[in-house]
Each structure stands twice: as structure tokens, then as C-alpha cells.
Amino acid sequence: MDADPQLLDRITAACTTAGIGVARGDDGRSLRAQDEGVDLTITLDPMGAVVRHAMHIPDDVFGWAIPGSPSMPMPTAEDVVARVVESRWGPLSAEVRRAESGHDVVLECLLDTEVMTRASLRAALHEVAKTRRVLDRLIADDRAQRAAIADLMPPAALAAPPVPSAPAWLPTHRVPAEGMPTWPAPDPSSPQGPRLDARLTVQVVEHRGDWARIVCSNGWSTWVDARTLQSVTS
Predict the structure, then answer these.
(1) Degrees (nearest 5) of the Cα angle 76, 149, 58?
(2) I want to staple 153 with a disulfide (CB 3.0 to 4.6 A). Which of 44, 81, 87, 157 is the partner?
């Protein structure tokens, strides 16, 4: 849509009357305004005029979990922006795009120029600027909470706990000279497993009555009759 000089002049006059600083953009087809330190642009749209503001949300906020907390979906930048926009005034919308080291966000508020008043123009500008300030506060709060947790917890607590290593395999017993049967469970009615070779060394890791659970040097575990095993020290 070609910029209507008269419409741009009308918007400029309304901003000036409302005490909002405004200037014609370098392209001569848009306006630049500012609301309490937030830079805004006003461009014409087939439906009227659009107030826009662009910002960047870095990767170091949102989408993180407190160490030791229950597993749950963490909010993303898209989630946070969507929730903030949903809580604001109706014509407000946002576009969030993945960018290098974060997300680029464009906040927009459509203004119907057919029924535009000084109050409606000021409300649209203020709503976009206020949404930027709300997001800034959420980013600052997120960083402050992260720093507080880091101060309370030593670095070792923030690191993943070490995975305990499996105990080394050590032979404790020997299969008798005639070999011996195996069972998948300490139950004589269960089908027998592979037969163990004569004089094979094994490690006993558990006892249940006359039963013993053994581990072979290759890591295979099974149950045998503990009464027929021979100690390697005997």
C-alpha cells in the first residue's frame, strides 16, 4: 500500500497532540515514534495502520530447569511471548522467529484509521511499548532467579551426578567337574537354561536359600544350585 501523505500527517498530528514524539521515516512512507524509551514504527496497511516494535530474546533465558526439580516441559521464548500477548489488548499480535543465539520478536498492533482518535492511537502505541517492557521484566526476573540459584548451590550440585561404575567381576566359585544346570529364576519348576561347563569360574552375587545367582565373566547372569558350587579358595 502506497503511503498516503495526508494520513501520515494526520497520524503525526495526533501523536504530537498526545505528547508522543514522532518523525517521518527515512523512506518517507512510515513514521518513527517513541513511548517511554521504546522505539516504535508506524506503517500503513490495507486495513489501516500498524504499530510495530522489534526485539531480540537471547538463548540464555527461559527453557531451563531447576536442578533436582521434577521433569516437566520448560517454557520456550515462543511460549512466553504467546502468553504475554494473550493477556494484552485484542489487536496486539506477535511473530517469533528463530535467529542466531536466540529469537527475533516483532510486536504489532493494528489501528483502524477510519475511526482513529488521539486516544486510540495513543493506546495502540502504549500497548506495544508496554508489552516490550513486560517481556523485559520477565527476562530480567529469569536471569535474577538463575543467578540466585547459582549462588545457593555449589557448582558440584549443578553438575550431573556421576554414574556409578559397575563393580569389577571377581570369581568366587567354580562349577563342579560334571558341570551343572542353570535356571532363569530360583524355581526348580521353570525350564532349565544352558548347562555350565565343568570347572568354569563364576561370581556369586546373591543367595536365596539353596539357590545362588551367579555372573559369568562375559556378564551373563543365571541361577544355580548353590550346594554344588565349589569355592575357588578350596
Answers:
(1) 35
(2) 157
Q: How is residue 107 written as a grid cell?
A: 510486536
Whether the Cβ atoms of residue 184 and residue 155 lie closer than 8 Å to each other: no
C-alpha–C-alpha distance, residues 95 and 111, integer Å: 17
Grid coordinates of 141: 526476573
Which amino acid is it at 192?
Q
Q: How does DSSP assign 166-178, residue by residue?
A: PPPP---EE--TT
Contacts with 187 (C-beta within 8 Å, 6 or more apart), sequence order: none
DSSP category for residue 196: B
Name the β-bridge partners of 43.
Answer: 30, 50
* Nearest-angstrom CA–CA distance, 36 and 151: 34
